[in-house]
Amino acid sequence: MSNRRVKLSYCADIVNILNKQRFDRKHCDFVMEVNGEFIYAHKAILSAASPYFEAIFEHDVKENVEGKVQFTDAEADDLKTIIDYIYGGKIKIDEDTVQSFLFISGLLQIDCIKEQCRVNKLFQYLENCALIKGNEFLTLSFKEVKTIIEDGDLYVEFEEKAYESVFKWVKHDPAARQKLLQELMSHVLLLIDGSTDVTDNACKVYDVSSNKVFDIPLMAETREELSTVSLNGLVYAIGGSDRSTAECYERIKQHWSHIATMRVHRYDHGVCAYNGHIYVIDGCGDEALEEYNPITN
User: Fold this and answer.
1) pTM listed for this prediction
2) CB contact set of 244 (below 8 Å; sequence gap of 6+)
3) Which of 23, 39, 222, 247 fits a 20 to 30 Å CA distance from 155?
């Protein structure tokens, strides 16, 4: 039997060499441009870590042919940190970077970073949850209250307490705070999907006049990271992870109905209603703009 010796650090040494080549721009065959800055890398490394890059390199798309891709919605330093992670396996996530890292890792489909970001967001949620339950919440400034309330990742139990807490905060100093109520309530999620104690197609509605939250019928499909918009008395639930479908809710009929399907899956996308039409913008899945006409469907 032959005597074999294995160098335990062999893999790490290879990665370190590739990383040094990246910084020296040696043998790099792909460039990422962000706000006028250029980040050089190797296609083989990027495709191994990111399904987003793998899909680009497997097809004769413009980015693959030119060996270059441009990112318009990311910060250069944050994308550099993500690429550093791809080469080195280490990343530091804090409250200042978690939202940006969550967006970039979602775009590049790097699940391990997304999971770390969600854990970080959970700790932020627990801190906010403890804060909102105490009397200290009543003494916070408008800016501090707004920062807590507009957090889109709050769980349903905290959302329902948020409605009550906003009114308590206003009543603590009504003369100065009454005028701020409308803006605060605009940041509170009125249609809640993905309840932690039911299903991912469960919804709740907040009645401003009675200051109560109540259930409405389930959506036809489960949806995570969807977007919602209201138009002509109807509520529209659009997209979500692995979803190109959309549906609308009629309050009088108390029923969800499917509408025309988008041409691609979208999540974390923007949506707005303007001049009788609904516009879906950007998001993870596609950067193109889609327009929906509710009259012609």
Assistant:
1) 0.45
2) 261, 262, 263, 264, 265, 266
3) 247
